[in-house]
Design brief:
Layout lengths: L2 H7 L6 H10 L4 E4 L5 E4 L4 H16 L7 E2 L3 E5 L5 E4 L3 E4 L8 E2 L4 E7 L5 H14 L4 E5 L6 E8 L2 E9 H5 L10
Parallel strand pairs: 4-7, 8-9
Antiparallel strand pairs: 1-2, 3-6, 4-5, 6-8, 9-10, 10-11
């Protein structure tokens, strides 16, 4: 889909249904929207990011988490402060219980959201999404750098804001259990 085609059909107020239609028509980009209505257009995940997400998924499987409690690349409905509704597509989401099928799932029962930082997404991942996820009440937010160590910074919700609980290379994390990080 060309930018001219997107511009020609762009509604004044983009909804989650609009995002779904845009992604269906454009396989070369991912679309997200903040609760304040800011549209983000990103390329699809690259191989390095997919491998990191797969390693974390395998870690959850090995720990015995049911397959219906976590997913990669699913949409979350992010409520805003002023009644707005955004849609984010984290790299990995873990729920406390199985979810009903859907394109944009509620943040209810989300235990953890993981974002793998890509070049160009640092500001959105480290500031904007961190604020949105904290406002939505998601207990844990992990950021994974695509540096050689794949450093994982674990944020924990504390009084409506995230504080850094710990930071470590992904290889260290994968040698621990999810219970060591309150993911049970």
């Amino acid at each position: 889909m060309s930018s001219e085609a997107v511009d020609r059909y762009m509604p004044a107020d983009v909804t989650l249904d609009d995002l779904t239609a845009m992604m269906a028509a454009d396989e070369h980009h991912r679309y997200e929207i903040s609760p304040d209505g800011v549209l983000s257009v990103m390329p699809p995940p690259g191989l390095a990011r997919a491998i990191i997400a797969n390693r974390l998924t395998a870690w959850l499987i090995a720990a015995g988490f049911p397959l219906d409690r976590f997913a990669q690349g699913v949409g979350l409905r992010i409520p805003g402060r002023n009644g707005g509704l955004g849609g984010r597509i984290p790299d990995l989401v873990l729920w406390s219980k199985a979810q009903a099928d859907g394109v944009w799932l509620p943040v209810t029962n989300v235990l953890l959201v993981v974002e793998i930082i890509s070049p160009g997404s640092e500001g959105v991942d480290t500031v904007t999404k961190r604020t949105e996820y904290a406002g939505a009440g998601i207990p844990q937010y992990w950021l994974v750098d695509q540096d050689p160590a794949h450093n994982v910074t674990m944020h924990e919700l504390d009084g409506g804001h995230y504080t850094v609980r710990e930071s470590m290379p992904l290889a260290w994390l994968l040698n621990m259990t999810p219970a060591d990080h309150d993911l049970v």
